[in-house]
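Researcher: Structure for this, please.
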Amino acid sequence: MKPFNLKMRYWLSLPILVMTILGLSACNQGGRSYQIDLTNLTHNQPMSPLAVILHDQGFQAWKTGLPASDGIERLAEGGDSSILLEMAAASTPNTTTAMGSDLILPGHTDSVTITSKIKGAIKLSVASMLVNTNDGFTGASAVDVSSIRFNEPLTLFVHTLDAGTEANDELAVNLPGPAGGGEGFNMSRNDRNFITVHPGVITADDGLIMSALDGSHRFDNPVARLVVSRIR
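Model: Predicted structure, token format:
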């Protein structure tokens, strides 16, 4: 039997080496994809189509204790996420955005798939309005999803925030959801002008006579379950 030829061994190994290098290179070029699932846990608070952002440290969707951006104000008052997504996309060249397709009804789940451009730490921000409120919204801001592995999803239970841009008067003319059918975004700010945890709704059943809401519209925290799965 002839001894194994070292030169032949080199040429046989070369394609494997090249494919390994290319594979490692691809991993370092971003390209990680995620499935984002938000489940509405409320009894009678539909949620606006999901806004999803993958970004780096150069962007912050919101922070409690600080004023809401124009994008968050528009989402929290009227369910319109377009300005928030535009602001995110303009913040850094590594940002990617996606939007859900429809209202998320109580007990239902909306799923969004999104792919990152980022090589390093990937942050996820997600937001959705509770449409039977004046300016209540839920979601997560700047969650690090870089370490999520395949088949090991990250599950978060998220609370309701108050954008602080519109007083919680619960009047039908100021509620864009089915309980009121009123106005959404209004550029004037008549509340504390910083984001806090939402205090909840009072409703007509609890004595706020002019409220368009009833007991079915109350909510406790958490209001939604957020599941982030790595799919590529």
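Researcher: Any notable elements?
Model: Residues 6-27 form the longest helix (22 residues). The two ends are 46 Å apart (CA to CA).
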